[in-house]
Design a protein that fits this description.
Strand content: under 5%
Strand order of the largest sheet: 1-2
Largest sheet: 2 strands, antiparallel
Shape: globular
Structural class: mainly alpha
Number of helices: 4
Number of strands: 2
Order of helices and strands: HEEHHH
Low-confidence stretches: none
Length: about 150
């Protein structure tokens, strides 16, 4: 984004939020192919809205390795505040801003998780996997917060 984006000051924190959100919701399928840039008619280049975000950790026997390293960490167990400081530098932001963004992402997931699951249940009907997703997202969000913020 810093090299080709029209507004890296806005889009770089969005990419950071995307990375943290994928950690927090238990998406271990967050590959670079799940990121896109949009070029508008005026030539501006911006990060596309998030897509293909799935709580893969709710399913048994799927890989738990992070598909993209988070400042060198390939497993959630490797996350800690020093990794967050390293990630902040990689994204060109201060550690204080990175902490603020992690807390905000986790707060937003916690605040909307149950409503999102209920909305899916209203559309698709009840399913045991929805309960599993709720439990996993609650746990992985808490773990992401604890590991990155200390």
């Amino acid at each position: 984004m810093r090299r080709f984006g029209t507004d890296p000051g806005t889009d770089t924190p969005l990419l950071f939020r995307w990375a943290v959100a994928n950690l927090a919701v238990g998406n271990r399928d967050a590959h670079a192919k799940n990121l896109s840039l949009l070029r508008s008619a005026d030539g501006s280049v911006r990060v596309a809205p998030a897509y293909d975000v799935v709580c893969t950790m709710a399913y048994k026997n799927l890989d738990t390795v992070l598909p993209l390293s988070f400042a060198g960490a390939l497993h959630v167990s490797q996350l800690h505040p020093s990794v967050l400081r390293k990630a902040a530098r990689a994204f060109g932001m201060t550690p204080a801003l990175a902490k603020e963004l992690v807390a905000d992402v986790c707060d937003r997931i916690d605040a909307t998780r149950d409503d999102a699951l209920h909305a899916v249940e209203r559309l698709a009907g009840p399913h045991a996997v929805l309960t599993s997703i709720g439990v996993v997202v609650e746990a992985t969000t808490a773990e992401t917060r604890r590991r990155l913020l200390g």
